[in-house]
């Protein structure tokens, strides 16, 4: 094993310790559990309800409603008369959630072209999201029975129940899309809301890992020994950057998967592809994200030089977190290209804004801003690596003496 | 005459407004134990860190076995091992794993180095305990073992027995005393005059960034006409 791999092994082993790993694992586990819960509720809501029916009507339309309900629900109790209060107890004992009462005179009211009422007696077993989903199921079945009734009474066709089909054309900057603004928004949200979130996680986790690595060296008082070993400083820097990036990307991947799973529990997962990126677009976003990662790691390594210990290292993460969170929110809730010049300039000056806005700009064929951003990120990353190697070759790593910046960062940790 | 282990000529170093070293000059011969002695803030650690390539050279020339610290730091690092005063070990590793990690960077037979390190550290079964569970004395013995198990040409030891009890300090002094060979040297710093007198072939008295006296302990005692090194120190420094 050469020196680089030995150092990389050491970094990875250090950063895979429970003290660093558990906080990373906790939030994905919470999101997965939430997603599991929401998925269970959705499954229950889309399932067949278990009901009881009292049909006091005896007419043809009462029977039609009874037939429709019976075909689409599991009927555990049926009677043509009786007290609903006692009948619901029987339904509940048989695992049912609701008793539907079709009252006497229902058919006459429909014949008179007035609305007929159906009594719905429900049992809520627990006051929770999953406990009250049966209400939506029952409402769905009643609506379906009403549609069957309308078709039967009026003799119309299903198309005539919803006779106007709007054909949408939406114009967005230079593009024309054959879908409604609402569907476009939904499509965009489901496809691209993740990208800024993922970028934020990648930046924060990777930054956290490299700062932790430096904080641990300082706290263990191992840095001086490491720096006097027969290894080039650039090799030490590279091992720290790559080791931290590996764990940071692992953390970001776990977060992304868990949040995707959580969000997909609310949707059918098959988002409309009214707007979508091609493989090259994703490759460009990937390049932008990679440059962000390199830049943040080197930046964090420079900050980590000023960490007194692990606790101090956490505080030094603060500026990186701000630089990661601001572009995320700006991209999620606004279009950077439409902001006022000063605000846009501030956002574009943050290197981590560029991968976050890249998908939107690529969708709108605004490649100028994307490639300009990539050039800017490359310059930022190169400058940060240069600075990191320079700091590693300077006295600052050992003495901590660093003028105004060092004093500012020391105050941040105190 | 062969290449000197250490050659420091007019070394100067400034931290902001503070002139830490004001023209330090000394040599260390192969096979020699050389001690830098001086009060707190005299510049001992700065000198050792400069030789270890941790700090940049302000002004002057610093060579280790003929390699210039400024222009050939990687060559210097191949010849030295440095034990900082307040060093620690990676607390997620056992003593053995720590020795293995260090040994992997030196030589073709790291296993042999680790065995030597275990023998020098003499921690018994505790060599397989996490270093986070070690006492200060145990950690110091482990670190000293990791420093000299690789048989560096120059071992640079900053306050090797600082903060240790009598027994542990004695053990470490014995290890250091036995270390030098024909081509192996030791450069150490210490506050402890008895330790310096016991260990060092020659010493340099450092005060306010300058060597104010230099020589073999016995010669210095004779030169100043005093009883021991402590009195030499007080005569030279105060």
Fold and architecture overview:
The complex is a heterodimer of chains A (414) and B (238). Helices cover 69% and strands 7% of the residues of chain A. Chain A has helices spanning 3-15, 18-46, 60-72, 84-93, 106-111, 133-154, 158-161, 181-192, 194-220, 223-227, 233-264, 279-304, 310-333, 341-349, 353-363, 367-392, 396-399, 403-413, and strands at 50-55, 74-79, 98-102, 119-122, 170-172, 175-177. In chain A, helix 9 (194-220) packs across helix 11 (233-264) and helix 11 (233-264) packs across helix 12 (279-304). The longest helix of chain A is centred in the middle third of the chain and has 32 residues, at 233-264. Chain A is elongated and about 95 Å long. Chain B is an alpha/beta fold. Chain B has a single domain, classed as P-loop containing nucleotide triphosphate hydrolases (Rossmann fold). Chain B has nine helices and ten strands. Chain B has helices spanning 44-51, 73-79, 95-103, 110-121, 136-148, 166-178, 193-199, 217-224, 229-237; strands spanning 6-15, 18-28, 33-37, 59-64, 67-68, 80-83, 154-158, 185-190, 202-207, 210-215. In chain B, the strands form two sheets. Chain B has a six-stranded mixed β-sheet, sandwiched between helices. Chain B has a four-stranded antiparallel β-sheet with strand order 2-1-4-5, covered by helices on one side. In chain B, helix 3 packs across helix 4 (110-121), helix 5 (136-148) packs parallel to helix 6 (166-178) and helix 8 crosses helix 9 (229-237). At the A-B interface, helix 1, helix 10 and helix 17 of A face helix 2 and strand 6 of B.
Q: What would you say about this model in short?
A:
The complex is a heterodimer of chains A (414) and B (238). Chain A has 414 residues and is α/β, with parallel strands linked by helices.
Please write out the topology.
The complex is a heterodimer of chains A (414) and B (238).
Chain A lengths: L2 H13 L2 H29 L3 E6 L4 H13 L1 E6 L4 H10 L4 E5 L3 H6 L7 E4 L10 H22 L3 H4 L8 E3 L2 E3 L3 H12 L1 H27 L2 H5 L5 H32 L14 H26 L5 H24 L7 H9 L3 H11 L3 H26 L3 H4 L3 H11 L1
Parallel strand pairs in A: 1-2, 1-3
Antiparallel strand pairs in A: 3-4, 5-6
Helix pairs in contact in A: 1-11, 2-6, 2-11, 3-6, 9-11, 9-12, 9-13, 9-15, 11-12, 12-13, 12-15, 12-16, 13-15, 13-18, 15-16
Chain B lengths: L5 E10 L2 E11 L4 E5 L6 H8 L7 E6 L2 E2 L4 H7 E4 L11 H9 L6 H12 L14 H13 L5 E5 L7 H13 L6 E6 L2 H7 L2 E6 L2 E6 L1 H8 L4 H9 L1
Helix pairs in contact in B: 3-4, 4-5, 5-6, 8-9
């Amino acid at each position: 094993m050469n020196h680089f791999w030995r150092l990389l092994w050491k970094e990875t082993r250090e950063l895979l310790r429970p003290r660093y790993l558990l906080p990373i694992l906790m939030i994905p586990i919470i999101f997965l559990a939430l997603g599991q819960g929401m998925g269970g509720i959705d499954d229950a809501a889309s399932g067949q309800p278990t009901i009881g029916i009292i049909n006091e009507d005896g007419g043809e339309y009462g029977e039609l409603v009874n037939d429709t309900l019976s075909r689409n629900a599991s009927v555990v109790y049926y009677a043509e008369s009786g007290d609903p209060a006692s009948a619901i107890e029987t339904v509940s004992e048989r695992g049912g959630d609701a008793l539907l009462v079709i009252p006497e005179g229902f058919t006459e009211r429909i014949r008179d072209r007035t609305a007929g009422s159906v009594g719905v007696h429900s049992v809520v077993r627990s006051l929770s999201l999953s406990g009250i989903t049966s209400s939506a199921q029952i409402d769905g079945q009643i609506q379906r029975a009403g549609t069957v009734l309308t078709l039967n009474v009026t003799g119309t066709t299903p198309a005539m129940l919803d006779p106007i089909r709007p054909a949408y054309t939406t114009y967005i900057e230079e593009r024309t899309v054959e879908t409604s603004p609402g569907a476009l928004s939904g499509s965009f949200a489901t496809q691209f809301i993740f990208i800024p979130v993922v970028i934020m996680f990648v930046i924060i986790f990777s930054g956290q890992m490299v700062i932790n690595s430096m904080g641990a060296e300082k706290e263990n008082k191992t840095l001086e020994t490491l720096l006097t070993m027969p290894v080039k400083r650039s090799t030490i820097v590279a091992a720290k950057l790559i080791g931290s990036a590996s764990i940071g990307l692992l953390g970001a991947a776990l977060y992304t998967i868990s949040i995707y799973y959580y969000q997909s529990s609310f949707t059918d997962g098959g988002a409309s592809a009214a707007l979508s990126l091609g493989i090259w677009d994703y490759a460009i976003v990937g390049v932008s994200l990679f440059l962000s990662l390199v830049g943040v790691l080197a930046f964090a390594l420079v900050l980590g030089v000023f960490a007194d210990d692990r606790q101090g290292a956490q505080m030094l993460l603060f500026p990186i977190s701000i630089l990661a969170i601001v572009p995320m929110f700006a991209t999620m809730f606004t279009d950077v290209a439409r902001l006022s010049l000063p605000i846009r300039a501030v956002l574009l000056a943050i290197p981590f804004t560029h991968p976050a806005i890249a998908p939107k700009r690529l969708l709108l064929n605004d490649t100028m801003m994307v490639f300009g951003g990539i050039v800017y990120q490359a310059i930022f990353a190169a400058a940060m690596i240069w600075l990191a190697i320079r700091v590693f070759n300077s006295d600052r790593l050992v003495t901590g003496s660093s003028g105004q910046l060092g004093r500012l960062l020391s105050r941040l940790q105190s | 005459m062969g290449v000197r282990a250490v050659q420091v000529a007019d070394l100067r170093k400034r931290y902001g407004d503070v002139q830490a070293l004001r023209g330090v000059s000394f040599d260390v011969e192969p096979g020699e134990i050389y001690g830098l002695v001086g009060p707190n803030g005299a510049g001992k650690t700065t000198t050792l860190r400069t030789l270890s390539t941790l700090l940049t050279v302000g002004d002057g020339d610093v060579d280790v076995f003929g390699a210039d610290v400024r222009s050939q730091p990687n060559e210097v690092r191949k010849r030295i091992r440095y034990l900082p005063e307040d060093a620690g070990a990676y607390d997620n590793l056992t003593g053995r794993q720590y020795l293995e990690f260090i040994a992997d960077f030196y030589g073709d037979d790291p296993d042999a180095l680790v065995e030597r390190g275990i023998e020098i550290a003499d921690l018994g079964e505790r060599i397989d305990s996490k270093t986070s569970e070690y006492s200060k004395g145990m950690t110091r013995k482990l670190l000293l073992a990791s420093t000299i198990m690789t048989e560096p040409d120059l071992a640079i030891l900053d306050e090797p027995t600082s903060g240790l009890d009598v027994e542990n300090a004695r053990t470490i002094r014995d290890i250091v005393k036995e270390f030098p060979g024909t081509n192996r040297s030791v450069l150490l710093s210490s506050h402890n005059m008895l330790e310096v007198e016991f260990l060092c072939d020659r010493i340099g008295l450092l005060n306010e960034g300058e060597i104010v006296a230099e020589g073999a302990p016995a010669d210095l005692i004779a030169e100043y006409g005093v009883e021991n090194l402590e009195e030499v120190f007080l005569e030279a420094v105060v």
